[in-house]
Write a structure and sequence with these properties.
single chain; about 240 residues; alpha+beta; four-stranded antiparallel beta sheet; about 25% strand; elongated
């Protein structure tokens, strides 16, 4: 005669499930505690970040048979605290990609492959940008120069050529401004990015080509349309 198998009561099953959930939660929170103690991006110095980015650029943009690029250069970009936070990849014959060092990158993220250490903004591998300035006072003299009022944007004036057409750029802000030996910056101000270089005690905004002071209000400062999406599909 077969022995009767004992079944666990419902309350015991519930206890086991709760116990397993608590164990999993503990492991996850422990991982987050480790992440808070270890900044993964700090495990690499500037040269190592440079080499890691270059390796990924080669694979994504240069090894493709249909690639339109013939060569590239990579430059570090610094934030307002003089810390390296980005890389600018400038392609030949034209185009560029901005790469962020994801300083919130963690062990947990790396295990699941949700995001990477180097999210990219690569609209300008095929798109263009233009310089503009913001003016609150209407000026006929200003309009007669190389700037024209944007009829779709209040108080914005874009750069035009001798024929009155808006100038569109394919190269990076730094290359267009002929920045060579100066330290390149990408300032994050009011949730916007401003490409800039230092000029003595001020900054030169490479979108408007105007100097500004960080200690003053920069609410209406011309900025780039760069943004970084922290998703796997936008990893470099």
């Amino acid at each position: 005669m077969a022995k009767n198998s004992k079944k666990l009561p419902i309350w015991a099953k519930i206890v086991i499930i709760i116990f397993v959930i608590l164990i999993v939660a503990f492991v996850i929170f422990a991982a987050f505690d480790v992440n808070r103690c270890i900044s993964y991006w700090e495990l690499y110095n500037e040269q190592e970040h440079f080499e890691r980015v270059a390796k990924r650029v080669e694979k994504r943009y240069m090894q493709n048979e249909d690639s339109k690029f013939t060569s590239y250069e990579i430059y570090p970009l610094y934030d307002e605290n003089d810390e390296i936070s980005f890389f600018m990849v400038e392609f030949e014959p034209y185009g560029f990609v901005c790469v962020e060092i994801n300083k919130s990158y963690s062990w947990l993220m790396s295990q699941f492959g949700i995001v990477g250490m180097y999210p990219r903004y690569d609209y300008h591998t095929f798109g263009t940008w233009y310089r503009y300035r913001i003016r609150t006072d209407y000026s006929e003299e200003y309009l007669e120069g190389h700037w024209r009022k944007d009829v779709y944007r209040d108080n914005e004036y874009y750069e035009v050529d001798d024929g009155g057409e808006r100038i569109e750029y394919h190269d990076s802000y730094y290359k267009v401004a002929n920045i060579q030996n100066e330290k390149r910056y990408l300032l994050y101000i009011n949730e916007r990015y401003i490409p800039a270089v230092k000029r003595e005690d001020k900054w030169l905004n490479l979108i408007s080509m105007e100097e500004f002071d960080l200690n003053q209000s920069v609410e209406d400062m011309p900025s780039s349309y760069i943004y970084f999406v922290i998703k796997a599909m936008k990893n470099l």
